[in-house]
Every structure is written in C-alpha cells, then in structure tokens.
Design brief:
Elements: E1 4-10, E2 13-14, E3 20-23, E4 29-33, E5 40-48, E6 52-62, H1 73-76, H2 89-107, E7 129-135, E8 138-142, E9 149-151, H3 160-168, E10 176-181, E11 188-193, E12 205-207, E13 212-217, E14 220-225, H4 234-248, E15 253-257, H5 263-267, E16 273-278, H6 281-290, E17 296-300, E18 313-316, H7 324-333, E19 338-343, H8 346-358, E20 362-369, E21 379-385
Parallel strand pairs: 4-6, 11-12, 15-16, 15-18, 16-17, 18-19
Antiparallel strand pairs: 1-5, 2-3, 3-4, 5-6, 7-8, 7-10, 8-9, 10-11, 13-14, 19-21, 20-21
Helix pairs in contact: 2-8, 7-8
Length: 388
C-alpha cells in the first residue's frame, strides 16, 4: 500500500465497513481506517478519488473515551480478524446501530427506521467455525487489510473446542484449514486446502472432504458439512431462528430462499409447505438431510432463476451482496404478504429494503443481532409487509 500526504483530521461518525468519517479541506469525505468518532488524528492518505479519500491513522492526537487497548495480543500485533478490538463492546453496539440507521436513511430513504433493541451476545469464545492460513504447520490469520499472515496460537473469539485445535493441531501440507465444531454435540472437524493434506489433530476430529459435525439449535439437530455455510455461533443461529420463527408464525406456506443447511426451514412452526432453495451443493445436501420429515421441497439452484411459488411468507438470507434485483424479482414472484430479510451487511440490507419498498412492501421492523463482536459486522432481521 502506498502512503502519502500527512494531514490532520477530526472524525465525526462511523460508516459501513468500520471506518470513521472526516472531511478534507476541500469538503470531500475521508474514510479513516483505525479512527473512532470524535478523535483528532494525523493520517496518511492511501487513496485519492474524485468523490472521497481513504486514510490510515499515523498518530492519535486526541483519543475518544470509547478507545481501549485491544484485549488480544494477536490483534495488538496486527491480526485483522477482529477490526474493532480497540473499541469498548458497548460502543461497538452503538456504532453498529448508527451505521444501520445511516444506511437506511441514505440508501433506502427511511428517515425514521423501526429499529428494535439489539440482540446482544457474549463477546468472547463464540466462533464455532474458523478458517486459518497455515504457516510452518501452524495457524495464522491475515494482517489487517493485508494478505500477509500473522501466526497465532490462540484466538479471543474462538470457541474453546476450536481454540484447542488451533493450539494443538499441526497442518503441514495445507495452505489453509477450516476448523468447525458443534457446541451441542462436542463434534469437531477439519478441512484442508488442498484437500487431503496430511494434518495432525486429535483422534475425535473428523477430516477429509466428507467431514461434518452435528449441531443442536433450539433442541433440533442439524448436520453441517465442513464446506457448508453456517452461522458463526450457535447462540447467534438460535437468536436469528427465533426472530424468523416468530415472524413466520404457525401453519404457513413458506419459501426459504438461500436456505443454507436448512436452519430456518427446520425451525419454523408447523409449516404447511416449505420451498427451500440453495445453490451450494454442500449446503444443499445438508438441507435435504436436515429437512427430512418436514413438508419440504428442497431445490438446488440459483434463487434468481427459481420459478417462484405462491407462499404466505418468504424468508431470504442472501450472501453479503444481498438480494439484488434478480433476487428481489424472485421474492415478488412469490406474492407473499410478508418477507423476512436476514442481512449481514447494512448497506446491502438498505439496498434490498429499497428494492422491496419499490415493490410495495413496507418496513415493519428491523432487529440488529450482534453476531460478530469486535468487528464492524452486524446481522439484521427485517420484516416487511404488504397487503395481500
């Protein structure tokens, strides 16, 4: 990264992505990596564009009261896994609400967002899936906003069952390794890139391309393959599933789009019929397994190409990019009175809400779930309704 032009700035607020916003002398927005709102900082400009600048803190001149020493030694040494360890947990949650509100106002033109209380979850020992680089047989995470590795022998946010594998596993022959555990069952698995690389792990750890664990979510068991997407923490999966289940209600015909391993479809109450759509082959196989015994038709394919079915409720949990126009068209094709949108990026969430509002839906509520403490990421469950 090239740095040039040292300037002094005062920041005003946080924006999506975790940077603080300031203004340059010419009025352009400056997105400052490493700063908090209300700080006076000396920065180096790292990117100069017509509409905005990007900058990196070089010297902290006046610190915000919310700034703390990162609790993890690896974060202090440059690990980029937790970009907000220098922020108190309470401030992190406040900043995330501000980011959501700002995105809804700027992108979706929602001035008075029906924002519910944040679902707060423990800030340490929560991650049940970790993907790590391998350096000299041991795990490493990428440096903050860089590609070079930072070797680690612990992780503040890893679940103890994952932490044990980070500390005692040896992964010679692998470039990367994915470690996953089931908290409710105690099962563990590891998957390497390249696949089949020789590794040394405890005898109970399943390995290889078919490795999987089982997890209990609200008393229901789910199979989760090493290469399938699943929420990064089981208490977070439960929190999201409860919000979705309550919003769906009993005895409904449901479309579960981007269904993953079938989490939401597996926990909705007494469904009449479920249409579950998932593109990834590993998650699709898990969903077929997990939804056995439910009135579910599990379809492998792209949501944007699915033919749609008339349903009572649509659940949509797209990737970080959001529904986009093609996903929104599929939602509209379902003619559902209610849409439940699960989003992991505030800007994408706001774009999708704007699309759905243009299609006749009103935003009823939006609930932040703090799934990722010590990072600027936040999950949102939005409920949108329209007259049938």
């Amino acid at each position: 990264m090239i740095y040039w032009l040292l300037v002094e700035l005062v920041t005003s607020r946080m924006v999506a992505g975790g940077d603080a916003l300031a203004r340059a002398d010419d009025g352009r927005v400056v997105l400052v990596d490493g700063a908090l709102p209300g700080e006076r900082v000396r920065v180096s400009i790292t990117s100069d564009r017509a509409d905005h600048l990007r900058a990196q803190v070089v010297e902290l001149l006046e610190a915000a009261p919310e700034r703390i020493e990162p609790p993890c030694v690896h974060a202090r040494n440059g690990c980029g896994g937790c970009g907000w360890q220098h922020v108190t947990v309470d401030a992190q949650r406040a900043y995330k609400r501000d980011i959501i509100t700002d995105a809804l106002r700027r992108i979706a033109h929602v001035e008075d967002a029906p924002l519910c209380d944040t679902v707060e979850l423990p800030a340490a020992g929560y991650r049940t899936t970790v993907r790590a680089l391998v350096v000299d047989g041991g795990p490493a995470f990428r440096r903050h906003r860089a590609h070079d590795p930072v070797p680690v022998d612990s992780c503040l946010v890893a679940h103890p069952l994952v932490e044990d594998m980070l500390q005692h596993g040896r992964f010679h022959g692998a470039h990367e390794v994915t470690l996953r555990v089931g908290v409710g069952t105690g099962e563990r698995c590891a998957y390497t890139d390249p696949k089949g690389a020789p590794i040394e792990v405890a005898a109970d750890v399943r390995t290889g391309p078919r490795a999987h664990v089982h997890e209990l979510v609200d008393g229901t068991q789910f199979r989760i393959s090493a290469r399938s997407f699943f929420q990064t923490r089981v208490d977070g999966a439960e929190a999201l599933a409860r919000l979705v289940r309550d919003a769906v209600g009993p005895n409904r015909v449901v479309a579960d789009l981007y269904c993953g391993v079938g989490l939401f479809a597996g926990l909705v109450e007494t469904p009449v019929q479920i249409f579950a759509v998932e593109r990834d082959r590993h998650a699709f196989a898990d969903a077929r397994h997990n939804l056995r015994g439910r009135p579910a038709r599990v379809v492998r394919g792209d949501v944007g190409r699915w033919g749609s079915e008339p349903v009572d409720v649509v659940i949509a949990d797209p990737s970080r990019a959001g529904l986009g126009r093609t996903g929104a068209r599929t939602v509209f094709g379902c003619s559902a009175p209610r849409v439940i949108l699960v989003s992991c990026d505030p800007a994408a969430c706001a774009r999708d809400i704007a699309l759905l509002r243009d299609g006749g839906y009103d935003l009823t509520s939006i609930t932040p779930v703090d799934l990722f403490p010590h990072t600027p990421h936040v999950e949102c469950v939005s409920i949108l309704d329209r007259e049938p």
